[in-house]
Amino acid sequence: MALIVVLVFVSVFVVITLLLVASGTKSSQQTEQALANLDAALASSRSESRDQIVDIRKNEMLSAIPLINRWLLKIELAPRLRTILYQAGLKWTAGGLLFMSITCFAIIAYLVYLRTGVVILSMLIGLLAGFAPLAFVFHKRNRRFNQLEQELPESLDLMVSALRAGHSLAAALRLVAYESPEPIRGEFRTCFDEQNYGLELRTAMENLVNRVPLQDLRIVVTAILIQKESGGNLAEVLDKASYVIRERFRLKRQVRVHTAQGRLTGWILSILPVALGIGLYLLNPATMSVLWTRPIGVKLLYASAVMTISGALIIRKIVNMEV
C-alpha cells in the first residue's frame, strides 16, 4: 500500500507539472527565440575571436543537484517558484522547495497509513502536509508585502522632500534606496541601479512593479511615468498618493476591527473539530478509531472535511473586503 501511495503522488505531481509546462509554452518559445538571436549574434563575430567568446547569460542554480537543476531549467515551474521565493525574501532554491514538499508528503502519508490503513485518508493528509512548505513561503511573501506597503508612504515623503529641495527624480530614488528601511530599500536600490546603469526609467519601474505587485506601488509608478512624459508637479502628485495610501491603511484597520469577530469565528470553527478529534483519540483511542476502521466512519470523515473546508472558505469570503 505504501507503494500505491507513492505512485499516486508521483502521478499527481507529473500531471500538475505537465499542465504548468503547457501553460508556459509561449514564454518558453520566446525565451528560445531570444537565446537563438543571442547565439546568432555571437556566431557573427570574427572567426579568430571565437575562442575568446564568454557566455554573459545569467546562470542561476535552481537546485544543488545537477540532474534536478537541469530538469528544473527545462520547465516553466522553476521560474515561478523562484519569483515567489524572491518575493518572500527566502534564500531557498526551487528544487529545495519541491524536495521539502515531497518529503513532507511521503513521511506524513506513510505514517498516517501505518496508523489508519486507509489509503485515501493518508493521501489527503499527506497532500496537506506537502503543501505546508509552500504555505509557509506564501505566508512570508504576504508578510513582506504588507511591510513594503506600510513603508511606502514614508518613502514617498522622502521623495517629495528631495523633489521640493530641487533634486532630480534619480536623486530622489537614490535617497529612498539608501535611507529607507528594509525591505523597501532593497527594491528601490535595485530599481535605482538598473536606471543608473543605463536601463530606461520605464523599464526599471516596470521591473519594480513585477517584483512587488502591489496596487499602491503600481499607482505610484504610473504617476511617475505619466509625469515623465507629460510633465507636471511630481512632488504634489506623490504627496497626494502618500495621503491616499495612508487613508487606505486607516480604512483597512477599521474594516479589520469590524470583522475581527467573524475571522475569529472562522478560525475556531475550522480548528475545533480537528483539535477535539485529536483530544478524544488521546483519551480513548478505541472509540475514535471507529471513524477510520468502519466504512460509515470513513464516509463521515470525508463529509466533515468537505463541510469544514467549505464553511471556512465561505467565512473567509464574507470577512475579506476589498478596500
The percentage of residues in β strands lies in: under 5%
Overall residue-averaged pLDDT value: 78
Tally of individual domains: 3
Q: Uncertain segments of ≥5 residues (pLDDT<50)? A: 18-27, 44-58
- For the record, the CATH class of the largest domain is Mainly Alpha
Count the beta strands. Answer: 0
Q: What is the radius of gyration?
A: 26 Å
Shape: elongated
CATH architecture label of the largest domain = Up-down Bundle
Oligomer: single chain
In words, what does this structure look like?
This protein is mostly helical. It folds into three domains: 2-24 and 61-130, no CATH class; 144-250, Up-down Bundle (Receptor-associated Protein); 259-319. It contains 16 helices and no strands. It has helices spanning 2-23, 25-43, 66-74, 77-88, 94-116, 119-130, 132-164, 169-179, 184-196, 201-211, 215-230, 234-258, 260-283, 285-288, 290-293, 295-319. The longest helix has 33 residues, at 132-164. It starts with a helix and ends with a helix. Residues 18-27 and 44-58 have low confidence and may be disordered.
Secondary structure topology:
Layout (H helix, E strand, L loop, with lengths): L1 H22 L1 H19 L22 H9 L2 H12 L5 H23 L2 H12 L1 H33 L4 H11 L4 H13 L4 H11 L3 H16 L3 H25 L1 H24 L1 H4 L1 H4 L1 H25 L4
Short synopsis of the structure:
The protein has 323 residues and is mainly alpha-helical.
List keywords for this structure.
single chain; 323 residues; mainly alpha; Receptor-associated Protein; 81% helix; 0% strand; elongated
